[in-house]
Amino acid sequence: MTLDIGVLGYRFMGKAHANALARLPMFFPDAPEVNRHVLIGRDEAALESAADQLGFANTTTEWADAIPEVDVLYNLGPNHVHVEPSVAALDAGVSVFCEKPLAPTLSGAERMADAASESDAIAGIAFNYRYLPAVQYARKRITNGDLGEIRHVRAKYLQDWLVDPDAQWSWRLSEELAGSGSLGDLGAHSIDLARFLLGDVAGEIERVSGQLRTFVDERPVDDEGDETRPVTVDDAYSAQVTFASGTTGTFEASRFATGHKNDNTIEINGSAGSLRFSLERLNELELLEPGDRGYQTIMITEPDDPYIDHWWPPGHAIGWEHTFVHENYEFLNAVRNDAPYTPSFADGLSVQRVLDAIERSDERGEWVGIE
């Protein structure tokens, strides 16, 4: 069975997923066979060039025209185009893989999750950090009870690409196009990672207290700087949360954290042990077990570690791009086998509810529950 693939978006995420699709038959020979059928975008000239580079046979500037031609739609466009193409594809029985956050707004995410629940097609959201071998290993240790009763989780995702006040405006700085700033762009990853690691032992996040901050209110549209546009999203956020189990958590993200390029970290403390993970050292997991006087660093590169047997000999590191290979492998297998996939649109909606609660908490200046 060959799956015809349509991809909406050909820049950052488009390249990441096209690379994954190309790598699958080399390293995961049991993966479904795929045909990179059509690439979807707005700029015809740029689209043709990208299709040649990324290995797509056809192009179109109309996503609606692509839906009848494909088995799977990858919705990798800006957040404001997540809802309509995804809902239309699911209504037509076409499986959808959508980038995070699920939508700019909670109502949009609810529409998408409803469409997924009513469709026979498979719908997945691209929380790729779930598919890091070190994260998979960490989840196993937590689920097995090796850390004991979970007391704390603290997660931060820090970048610095907006530190310069003259950095150019982009769609990611518009509430209309993105929904939120660091909260949805980075915080969504942290919240999903905590849900993935702790879901079986801590339950869902039940209430939050959050704050959002914008440091630069407008930015230049081009290098000349003659025209500016307003920044209508947050540059940084922080939040305290409480899980159903009573576990307490702190979350933080910023695109103004000088010196941090892509610092996605999470630490979990339990009654019997702790662990720490950092994306900047993605082949390692720091683990504290009973009787240890301090953290030990474990290299997750052994053949029996998750996914590693598909890659290189022990001790040879993998990279960020491999997470996309792993998640594409799992998602496309789910499509082929007509089997459930996680993280699903329901997972994406759960994250969106937390994002929405943090925004409501900031507006009200008080703790709020998850709606």
Task: Describe the protein in words.
By secondary structure, the chain is an alpha/beta fold. The protein folds into 2 domains: 2-128, NAD(P)-binding Rossmann-like Domain (Rossmann fold, 3-Layer(aba) Sandwich), CATH 3.40.50; 130-319 and 328-364, Dihydrodipicolinate Reductase, domain 2. Helices cover 34% and strands 25% of the residues. It has helices spanning 12-27, 44-54, 63-66, 83-91, 106-118, 133-143, 175-178, 182-202, 322-337, 345-364, and strands at 2-8, 33-40, 58-60, 72-75, 95-99, 123-126, 150-158, 205-213, 218-220, 228-230, 236-243, 248-254, 263-270, 274-278, 284-288, 296-299, 368-369. A 9-stranded mixed sheet has the order 16-15-14-13-7-12-11-8-17. It has a 6-stranded parallel sheet with strand order 3-2-1-4-5-6, with helices on both faces. Strands 9-10 form a two-stranded antiparallel ribbon. Strand 11 (236-243) and strand 12 form a beta hairpin. Helix 8 (182-202) packs across helix 10 (345-364). The mean pLDDT is 97.
